[in-house]
Design brief:
Length: 85
């Protein structure tokens, strides 16, 4: 996805559907993918975040943590999770 940052979101398969539904309500913010990576025994799902919307995305995740299981959020590349956001 051009002009987007890649984030890796630690959650469960069940929760990622809810998280995706909420994020989808914010037009143009981010696109949750079903691509995942296993790192240190944890599942991370790929999220493309629109350029310039990274702060809004991270703020939304903080609010979502009140009602959804969200672990670490890492900024990275398409093929790997890198540094914690």
């Amino acid at each position: 996805m051009a002009d987007a940052s890649v984030y890796w979101l630690n959650s469960t398969e069940e929760e990622i559907h809810f998280i995706d539904a909420v994020i989808s309500a914010y037009d143009g913010l981010a696109n949750v993918r079903r691509d995942w990576r296993l790192q240190d025994g944890k599942i991370y799902f790929k999220v493309y975040v629109a350029s310039g919307m990274e702060g809004d995305f991270l703020e939304l995740l903080e609010r979502l943590r009140r009602v959804a299981t969200i672990g670490e959020v890492m900024q990275g590349e398409d093929d790997e999770a890198l540094s914690a956001a």
